[in-house]
Design a protein that fits this description.
Largest sheet: 3 strands, antiparallel
Number of helices: 2
Distance between the termini: 31 Å
Order of helices and strands: EEEEHEH
Shape: globular
Structural class: alpha+beta
Number of strands: 5
Length: about 70
């Protein structure tokens, strides 16, 4: 799958993490692995699945961009 970097969190101390990438018909997130306590709260996590923490500003920016792209703002 070919992905394209979109942006990282404004609080990133270096590198590109946490970050969001555009993928064919969706997105890929890069972020910090969640801890065991948080993982235990996930529902129906399959063996081939994983979860990462994504700061709100990364998702908020995606929402703002989608609204703009759709001509709703």
């Amino acid at each position: 799958m070919k992905i394209k970097f979109m942006w990282k969190t404004k609080d990133s101390g270096g590198g590109n993490c946490p970050a969001l990438y555009e993928a064919p018909s969706g997105y890929v997130t890069q972020g910090e692995k969640i801890d065991d306590e948080t993982r235990a709260q996930l529902q129906d996590l399959a063996p081939h699945e994983d979860a990462v923490y994504v700061p709100a500003d990364v998702i908020d920016r995606l929402v703002q961009q989608r609204i703009k792209d759709l001509g709703l703002a």
